[in-house]
Amino acid sequence: MTDDESRARARWITLQLMRVSGAALVMVGAIIAVGRTSLPTAAGTVLMLVGLLDATVIPLVLARRWRTPKP
């Protein structure tokens, strides 16, 4: 595997992990917001919002930053 291929693979894995961690944050936030734990519901709402941002916006920003410049 060349250096470019390994860099592309690492970036792809990073993007996927960001999406999965965002989805996990949304699920944990929903559990907290519903009141299944002793934590305040506001904390669950904040976790859900951070998870949505983490799963949708951050991968787009990283992909744009890592995009190969057009010649």
Characterization of the model:
By secondary structure, the protein is mainly alpha-helical. It has one domain. Helix content is 82%, strand content 0%. It contains 2 helices and no strands. The longest helix is centred in the N-terminal third of the chain and has 32 residues, at 3-34. It starts with a helix and ends in a 5-residue tail after the last helix. The model has no long low-confidence stretch (mean pLDDT 94).
Query: How many structurally independent domains?
Result: 1
**H/E series, N to C?**
HH
How would you name the oligomeric state of the polypeptide chains in this document? single chain
Structural class: mainly alpha
Terminal Cα separation, in Å?
Answer: 24 Å
Average per-residue pLDDT, rounded, comes to 94
Share of helix, binned: over 70%
Which range does the strand content fall in? under 5%
* Tertiary shape: elongated
